[in-house]
Amino acid sequence: MDVQDTELKKELDAALKARRELGEEYESALVDSFLEKVDQRIDGAVERRVRRQFAERQVATVRDGRAAEGQDSWGARFGFGIVSLVLAIPLSAIGTANAHLPGLIVTWTGIVGVNVVQAARVNPTLFGGRLQGRSRDGDWED
After folding, report:
1. Which residues does residue 140 pair with via DSSP β-bridges, in sequence order?
2. Average pLDDT per 10 consecutive residues for the chain, totaling 142 residues
3. SS3 for 23?
4. Which of 23, 34, 45, 62 is the most buried (most CB within 10 A)?
5. For residue 142, what pLDDT is reported?
6. What residues form DSSP beta bridges with 134?
7. How would you write 24-65 as a 3-class SS string?
8. In this structure, what DSSP letter does residue 139 have?
9. How far apart are CA 57 and CA 63, in angstroms?
10. Looking at residue 127, what DSSP letter applies?
């Protein structure tokens, strides 16, 4: 039994005792008072439930928005490009110091390769690929 149920039971017992003491002329006022308390409890429970569902929907909406944004966000692409260029400087120096021109070529081939793979992962249609289940014009395949 819930805490609120025991409190409601106590209030009902109190209303019945008050009716016995005050008589039948106060019965409608006691019943109305008890029903008002029940209505308040129901309203509170419904309000809490609605708030919780609303908050859950907001959280789900925010999560979906972040997931969709995280896949092809301009900031993520820009950040990846900046990090790639920053790391390219010491990698170029290491490749050149160890293997001269062939080392530099291998280093930059790797840097370009990583960026191409990232671009293809973020935007599958970039290099002529198709999204799974969709044709290039956006219609569903049969």
Report:
1. 134
2. 76 85 83 87 90 89 66 76 91 93 94 90 76 51 46
3. coil
4. 34
5. 43
6. 140
7. HHHHHHHHHHHHHHHHHHHHHHHHHHHHHHHHHHHHHHHHHH
8. P
9. 10
10. T
Q: What would the two tokens of residue 130 be?
A: 């198709």
Phi/psi at 134 (nearest 5 deg)? -130, 145
Helix (H) or strand (E) holding 94: helix 74-122
Angle between helices 27-71 and 3-22 (to 10 degrees): 160
Q: Is 141 exposed, middle or buried (0-12, 13-18, 19+ CB in 10 A)?
A: exposed
What residue type is assigned to position 44 of the chain?
G
Model pLDDT, residue 130: 61
Tell me if 122 sits within 8 A of 77, measured CB to CB: yes
Name the residue with tokens 């070529």.
105
Interatomic CA distance for residues 89 and 85, integer angstroms: 7
> What letter would DSSP give residue 140?
B
Non-local (6+) Cβ contacts of 80 within 8 A are 115, 118
Residue whose token pair is 């109190």? 14
